[in-house]
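This part of the workshop introduces the protein records we will be handling. Backbone structure tokens are a discrete shorthand for how the chain folds in space. Once this layout is familiar, the rest of the handout is easier to follow. The record below serves as our worked example for the rest of this section.
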Amino acid sequence: DQYCTALAYWFQPSPLPRNPQKSRFWHGEAAKNGHAAAMVALAYMAEQGHGGPQDLQLAVSLYRSAADRGSPDGMFNLFRAYTTGKGVPRADERLARNWLDKASAAGSLDARKALAKIGRGAYDMPGADIARNAFAAYQKNDYPTSFSLYTQAAKAGNTNAMVSLGQHY
């Protein structure tokens, strides 16, 4: 089985030596045959650059193919993509939430944990790391840097940054 061979080259201990390139190849072969879990694994490898070049657009395409086949992991990873804006045209909070809800309904434990975080107000919006750096600059009275960083975070879709940017104006 192609998928099992891919896993054997990736996870250790295994009768096969660890080889990310061979793992990526065999995940690709299984994905060509419609194996949703292989699509998710190959997408992750493409996203991270394991066993070959990093390719965020390929990763999103594979996550979408897996999601179309009912994969909760594919759906959850599309949520991540639309949250961060990586591999998609732009971060989109509405699409991210849509994929998160679908992943949860499909049984994703990761999605359910993310929804619980949102319920507690602990959800990181797109550009949250940039907004944190903007606030740190603001606290140091470095208003030009704070303004610039809040602008970047707002463009990424961070609504809190949008409010802070308004306060700068």
